[in-house]
Amino acid sequence: MSDDNELTPEIEAALRDIPAGDPALRDQHIAAALGELAPAATMKRRNLFAAAAAVLVLAGAGFAVSENSDGDAPAVAAPDTTITSLPKASGECQKSGGFWGDVGGIDYFTLRGVAFELVHRDDLVDLYFGSEPCTMLGTIGYYEAMQRRDNQEGLPSESTCTKDPLVQFTSDAGGQEYRLALLETSDGVSLFFEDRCNEPIGSITLPTSGD
Amino acid sequence: MTSDALLVKRAQRGDRNAVDALLRENYDIIRAVCHRIIINTSDAEDATQMALIAIVRALPSFDGRAKFSTWVYRIATNAALDELRRIKRRDIPNDDAQFENISVTDATHAVDAQMDVSAALAQVAEEFRVALVLRHIADLDYEEIAVILEVPVGTVRSRLSRGRAQLTALLGNQGESTHRQNNDIGGQP
């Protein structure tokens, strides 16, 4: 919508000409505002991780464990019957929408007879056991990696993934759209760009007999 | 999703670095809105602080229906108006006295300014001044200003028109006015 009558450029410039603030005061203002963040967000997330860690201990105790003799395969085996006696989680493996309500989708896959769920949250993926108690095993963020690619900084050489991926997906979280792949590794899973398969963006180690 | 939208989402998840980045990105304009609405420097800094805190507290409820910047300006404007109300309750008996007081005070700090827009702006009625700030400092269009002020677009148009007229008239006499004020100040024993 156009203006009926604008201010003269001189007056407009004078209006915008506000003396710069003291950088120390700016930092103080921002620090005080960030102080509002700690109790609301950080603690909730800390509690979530604490709960996940507690369940992980139980799951690790009940999980049937096998030493990996195949080299590349993760050391995860199907759960034995003791799994069913573990405490039940309150939700269904994040199907209700996730802790922050920002779940963008869920991929399901099975690795050595164990069901997993890969929960997408913007520029993050969370890996869960796919059956109750739906323990969260870890999170991989790929925003920074995408930004590096967008800016073409510190890229590994091109190397297309040849292994069958557990999950493939496309994301434009960093700006441009890229294809990503979750692959099985010797001790868990790793996330790669499909055309940069020689350097993982992040990895999650799956529990073994030692965990 | 744009990088700005992603930054907001990260901030909403409680990512401290993202919140910090968002606040720094918007700090100057928040401060400018507060300074131009309130005029008095220290009160404007208080309003800036309150606006930042309000933004952090309200981040989880930002639903993305408005542009993030518009949402930020709305919070900054409300913080500035709250501060003005607090100032009035604190020590100013009426609006006219407030503006006269601020005008002289600000002129004292701007004796060398050729165009003391702060002093002039202080004499523009508050509702016109807020509209001017949102249009000419925050660069919002009429619809966005209407949403923030919760008034019809026609009212925004009217307030802007009258505010511009007042400001232009005041600045038209600015040289004489500032000169007189400076002489008055300088002439006091």
Automatic annotation (TrEMBL), chain A:
Name of protein: Unannotated protein
From TrEMBL, chain B:
Q: Which CDD domains match?
A: Sigma70_r4
Residue intervals of the RNA polymerase sigma-70 region domain: 22-89
Q: GO annotations under biological process? A: DNA-templated transcription initiation
What's an example of a GO molecular-function annotation for this chain? sigma factor activity
> Domain RNA polymerase sigma factor 70 region 4 type: where?
116-167
Looking up Pfam families in the UniProt record yields:
Sigma70_r2 (PF04542), Sigma70_r4_2 (PF08281)
UniProt cross-references to InterPro entries, sorted A to Z: RNA_pol_sigma-70-like, RNA_pol_sigma-70_dom, RNA_pol_sigma70_r2, RNA_pol_sigma70_r4_t2, RNA_pol_sigma_r2, RNA_pol_sigma_r3/r4-like, WH-like_DNA-bd_sf
Q: Does the keyword Hydrolase apply?
A: no
Keyword list, A-Z: Sigma factor, Transcription, Transcription regulation
Which NCBIfam families is this protein grouped with?
A: sigma70-ECF (TIGR02937)
| PANTHER family membership | RNA POLYMERASE ECF-TYPE SIGMA FACTO, RNA POLYMERASE SIGMA FACTOR
Q: Which family does it belong to?
A: Belongs to the sigma-70 factor family. ECF subfamily.
Designated name of the protein: Unannotated protein
Organism this protein belongs to:
freshwater metagenome
